[in-house]
Amino acid sequence: MGASFLITLREGLEVALVLAIILAYLDQRHEPGLSRPVWIGTAVAAAVCLVAGVAFHLVVGEFEGHTEQAIEGVLALAAAGVLTWMIFWMRGHARELRGELHHRIDAALAHNPATLAVIAFVAVAREGFETALFLLGAETNSASGGEVVVGGLAGLVVAALLGVALHKGTHHLDLRRFFHWTGALLVAFAAGLFAKGVHELRELFGIEWSVVAAPVWTITSGPLAKGSQVHDFLAGLFGWSASPERIRVAAYLAYLVPVAWLYVRDTSEVPDVVPEPVAADA
Fold first, then answer.
1. Residue 64 in 3-state DSSP?
2. What HEC string does 213-243 produce?
3. Which end of the chain has fewer CB atoms surrounding its CB within 10 Å, N or C?
4. DSSP states of 136-150 as a string?
5. 170/263 Cα distance (integer angstroms)
């Protein structure tokens, strides 16, 4: 639940920022009436992502045995890769986000304002498909799919409220710090996904050599043991296991150490892309 809340909060706030930038620029150009195609594109993208996510979840849930292990392993590795790309892409391109959107809006208004729906659709769909992939990966690490859904919905609600407040200028959020710390948590989450993927593929290929398959530790009681709420929370957020094999721990560290180093070596690149409120007489 913690992982899904974090994912949808961050991804949802990115969507909210994009929409806020688009709507604020339309207000600045005295074109608030063109917000309708923006909301149409947003709604269509959200519906498509929701249907695709549910369909893929149902399809994956039908598989068992080696097929399930293969799908979960590949899915976890893919989610870790996309998540890593997303974290670093946001750091490197967020400063340019407002300018790129303004350029696309200018082009749309010059040719066909209806293409504003396409701009909104592409922006929301990209984040939506990423979110669906991450949530599917989170489900393989948490106690149940129901907790993933509850946490995900809660994250979206909070992100939507923050987005509305930011757009109307009624609340200031230090986005530089927000994206920095959520990014750091997502690096740890991606490390857990990567280790989970390696674990599933090890089981798929039946590699039982003690040098890779022997447990590093085994916890059978206490808050960190399997079945406890603390265990389920840490498993969902960081990929914790009460009895991880050596290759799983090695994979976790092999991902976490270099990626975390790359992430923290220059924190000055974490930008603040909040759209500026538009004055009524602008």
1. coil
2. HCECCCCCCCCCCCCCHHHHHHHHHHCCCCC
3. C
4. HHHHTTSS-HHHHHH
5. 31
Structure tokens at 106: 């200018």
Q: Residue type at 162?
A: L
Mean pLDDT over the full length of the chain: 82
- Residue 104: what pLDDT? 87
Q: Is 230's pLDDT higher than 90?
A: no
pLDDT at 132 over 80: yes
Report d(CA 265, CA 88) in Å as an integer.
12
Cβ atoms of 276 and 17 within 8 Å: the answer is no
Q: Own/partner pairs for 85-94, CB < 8 Å, 24+ apart?
A: 86/130, 87/183, 87/186, 87/187, 87/190, 87/263, 88/262, 88/263, 90/14, 90/179, 90/183, 91/179, 91/183, 91/269, 91/270, 91/271, 92/269, 94/179, 94/271, 94/273
Q: Spell out the SS3 assignment of 122-139.
A: HHHHHHHHHHHHHHHHHH
pLDDT tier, 279 (very low <50, low <70, confident <90, very high otherwise):
very low
Which whole-number Å values give the CA distances from 170 to 99, 162, 173, 175, 250, in the listed order? 23, 10, 10, 15, 47
- Higher local confidence (pLDDT), 268 or 51: 51
Cα distance between residue 42 and residue 241, in whole Å: 38
One-letter amino acid identity for 106?
D
Burial class from Cβ neighbours inside 10 Å (0-12, 13-18, 19+) for residue 54 reads exposed
Identify residue 169 by its one-letter amino acid code. Answer: G
Write out pLDDT tens, residues 241-278: 999 999 999 999 999 999 999 998 865 544 455 555 44
Query: Can you tell me the mean pLDDT for 150-170?
Result: 79
Q: Collect all residues with Cβ–Cβ distance below 8 Å to 89 and sequence separation of at least 6.
A: none
pTM: 0.81
Tell me which amino acid residue 281 is.
D
